[in-house]
Amino acid sequence: MKSSPFQNRLIQMPKRFVINLSIGLLVVFGLLFAYKSSSSFTGIQQNDPAKLGFLFQTDKQNTTREISFLTYEKRFCPSVQQCELLKPLWNGPSRQVMVPKYGLTTCIIPKNFSTVFTSILCYIFDAIAYKKEVKDMMKDTFFVRRCQKYNEIFTWTARKNFQSARGGKWRNYMIIREPVERFISGFVDKCILAKTHPEAHFNTRVDPCYGCEENMTCFIQNQYESLQAISNGKKDVHQVENAHFSPQTWHCQMKEHFTDYHFIKYTPSKIAVFLDELLAEFEFFGVPKNVTDDIREQVVGRATFHATSGTNYPKRYRNEIENSQYLKEMLIKMYYYDFLYLDFELPLL
Ligand SMILES: *[C@@H]1O[C@H](CO)[C@@H](O)[C@H](O)[C@H]1NC(C)=O
Ligand SMILES: *[C@@H]1O[C@H](CO)[C@@H](O)[C@H](O)[C@H]1NC(C)=O
Ligand SMILES: *[C@@H]1O[C@H](CO)[C@@H](O)[C@H](O)[C@H]1NC(C)=O
Ligand SMILES: CC(=O)N[C@H]1CO[C@H](CO)[C@@H](O)[C@@H]1O
């Protein structure tokens, strides 16, 4: 279980800063000078973790990543007025699930697996009651959610109503996905497969997928405009499309709480490895072995949450993206700050 290297770096920052202060400063000034556009250069905008030295925390050995991000930022965001990148860390929804008994929490970014994760936390929240009431945890879906009324909250401040049994300490998980993979999976799930799954309620959604059918170019244009409107306060985020395609860094009050989270990268094809790591952590924090074993048994090997993987669609759309400069640019404009803050590589243009 690794937290984002960025986060690790952040935690170790004070020490590193002391050691690397002079080198670091030289590199920073060097970079700024190299871009010699300090007047129009937006840097990462104000009020975000960049102020903590995030982007400019250049390792002497390796500035490739930082330089490539700065290059893209300069290209798509030459000034605040002409910025095509979606805003960083805009505060969208923040649904949190609390497990005081073991001092564990998670903030949920909507997507297929988040439902499963919510059920897992509900199970460990009260294993005995859960076992009695829920026969099949994979059927404890979003619309059922046994625990909803007991341990779900929607703001960071509401956490004060809960006491962690681990001396007031909380381990705050956040499950994140590679932005392009997440986009493809969301598109296939919400715009294509949903049409043939009655429980996905495609037909009762308002203007589902902007009427784009299977046209990803059409969809991404509309989705980008919709998110821009939201971040400018002109639209509400509560709509299936916006909830699933808004940047991950727009969720969970990351603007204030980025450094409080323990990030875990999730890839559906590696669910078994992922669960092993997660459940080993749970055991470390005191969750009984018979409970984690039961979770493993009920979740691994069940196909529900890789709904899209049995089809050809993900491959088809991945190819389409790889061959389209336009789609790649749109993905960068939408998810630049996800790539940056959550430590993923930008698509190459
Ligand atoms: C430098 O960054 C590149 C791209 O992220 C990475 O592949 C490489 O391993 C890094 N090198 C070192 C020495 O960290
Ligand atoms: C997909 O949508 C775009 C933008 O709306 C449009 O220009 C293009 O012709 C559409 N492609 C197909 C195959 O319909
Ligand atoms: C786990 O074991 C404990 C103690 O042996 C027992 O009380 C509990 O019911 C078990 N839980 C499950 C889910 O099997
Ligand atoms: C666990 C869960 O919510 N799985 C859902 C994932 O998405 C597919 C397709 O929309 C559903 O059929 C699953 O129930």
Automatic annotation (TrEMBL):
Q: Does the keyword Transferase apply?
A: no
Any GO CC annotation of this UniProt entry: membrane
Which keywords appear in this protein's UniProt record, sorted alphabetically?
Membrane, Transmembrane, Transmembrane helix
Q: What are the recorded GO MF terms, alphabetically? A: chondroitin 4-sulfotransferase activity
Q: Which Pfam families match?
A: Sulfotransfer_2 (PF03567)
Q: Which residues cross the membrane?
A: 17-35
- Which residues does UniProt call coiled coil? none
Kindly list the biological process annotations in GO that this record carries.
chondroitin sulfate proteoglycan biosynthetic process; positive regulation of response to oxidative stress
PANTHER family, alphabetically? PROTEIN CBG14245 (PTHR22900:SF5), PROTEIN CBG14245-RELATED (PTHR22900)
Q: What is this protein called?
A: Carbohydrate sulfotransferase
Its lineage reads:
Eukaryota, Metazoa, Ecdysozoa, Nematoda, Chromadorea
